């Protein structure tokens, strides 16, 4: 019988609390397998047996190292979020042109999104993920909104993008980004070329055009 799982929101909170701890090389395959199982089945249906099979390790190994599936999922989410933040940080350091920066950041977010919500995810999992992003004070969405708004204001003040209400633009950008991850998906978001084309023709114009 599957042990009742912690709500996905609780797992995100635990993951973000320990964000500074990076995984070691030995556990990366396990965390990758855990994220894959989470993306397809969600916390309710997934089991340690599923993760063990995907990782190619024994169930006993997982329990010995992580204790339970909630701790393992929290650790896997932490690693995925850490990787996303590190990638976005590298993008902002390396890419100066506004459109290119938006496209590359959108691509990184889609890579993260398709990692935690598979295209064939069970319906309740996609709903759980959407709810998680809106929970908390501040919520993940609110943190993202503040960050994007600040970047738009900075670019407007530097004359790199046209004027307009930065908060409205940030809100539109985030809602559009999330909508692409909601199943069913019309486009293959695992294809970087497809994602970059969406980013450059649909997402970036919200910011770089008046």
Describe the structure.
- There is one protein chain.
- This protein is 72% helix and 0% strand.
- With 210 residues, it is mainly alpha-helical.
- The mean pLDDT is 81.
Instruction: List how many beta strands DSSP finds.
Output: 0
Radius of gyration based on Cα positions = 18 Å
State the end-to-end distance. 56 Å
Q: Could you name the ranges where pLDDT drops below 50 across 5 or more consecutive residues? A: none
Which structural category fits the helices and strands? mainly alpha
What is the average per-residue confidence, as pLDDT, rounded to a whole number?
A: 81
* Residues in β-strands, percent: under 5%
Shape: elongated
The major β-sheet equals: none
Q: Give the H and E element order.
A: HHHHHHHHHH
Number of helices: 10
What is the share of helical residues? Answer: over 70%
Question: Which key phrases capture this entry?
Answer:
mainly alpha; 0% strand
Could you outline the blueprint of secondary structure elements for this entry?
Layout: H1 8-17, H2 28-45, H3 48-55, H4 59-66, H5 69-94, H6 98-116, H7 123-134, H8 140-157, H9 166-181, H10 192-208
In short:
With 210 residues, this protein is an all-alpha fold. It is built from ten helices and no strands. α9 runs antiparallel to α10 (192-208).
